């Protein structure tokens, strides 16, 4: 199974810290799976101009093809102005409408205030549903107070990240099994 952890911002450290921890948990508990961390701060992404994702070059082509090749995606995003950052929105714009069909997608959200938890429900989940994702319904919401010196210090957050990792892998395995059984019904 191929899992992509996407840190969806080019600024700040909290989202990347959360995603690095998530990848560590994935690699420790599920070493048999291929896990890749895509930190958008490390790539030079072009703005979407309507082309197919495979018509881009360089980092844009690499990132979009890595996402399209994944079985599961864990999206990490900060909350900026009560919304997702433009860098993450650009990723969605670069991908086709059905980009997440047959993929499991889960989310980790960082925010400076507990008041922004609805951003996931009102903005991110509808985008993922529109793009045909199998969404892990629970997500991890991490506030600024849960970090200290670029470390997650809240044990409950660490527990919830572990559970998100388990739920993502379990749902992906289950979904793949269902797909295989459905495909086996056909004679070709």
UniProtKB/TrEMBL annotation:
Enzyme class: oxidoreductase
Stretches assigned to coiled coil: none
GO molecular function: oxidoreductase activity
Protein name per UniProt: NADPH-dependent FMN reductase
Organism, scientific name: Sporosarcina soli
NADPH-dependent FMN reductase-like domain boundaries: 1-143
Tagged with keyword Flavoprotein: yes
Pfam families tied to this protein: FMN_red (PF03358)
EC number(s) on file: 1.-.-.-
Keyword line: Flavoprotein, FMN, Oxidoreductase
Protein transport recorded as keyword: no
InterPro entries, A to Z: Flavoprotein-like_sf, FMN_Rdtase-like_dom, NAD(P)H-dep_FMN_reductase
